[in-house]
């Protein structure tokens, strides 16, 4: 038996265009800052939920080095704190989520962004589409997740023969 996954209101091509626009609009070009060694390892992950006719989550994932670099460029600072990084990465996923929401039917609501260096994995979501963007030599992973119909009482369970 296979499960039914609702059709995505957004495509990988949409994500590519929206993501490139958001990165270009928010991140001032300039030389990359120096990332202290203890900041270079790990990942920073951010998510924002969309609720309405379609329910889903938009996630953004970058290396810790990229997160610090984009924060410096976005905020035009030489030195950034972890709070600055959380704010900047959260704002990027929020703007990206707002752009995705604009592709949906009216009445959709954007949640508050969440930023973590831990796992965003949630067994109640199914990846709908993804894209990998490149900014200042850093990969930026953007994904759209839909509710897993096996864990979402709002969706009918359908199977195919």
UniProtKB/TrEMBL annotation:
Keywords from the named record: Chemotaxis
| Claim: Zinc is one of the keywords in the record | no
Q: Which Pfam families match?
A: CheX
Chemotaxis phosphatase CheX-like domain: residues covered = 46-122
What is the name listed in the Swiss-Prot or TrEMBL entry for this protein?
A: Chemotaxis protein CheX
Q: Which organism is it from?
A: Nocardioides zeicaulis
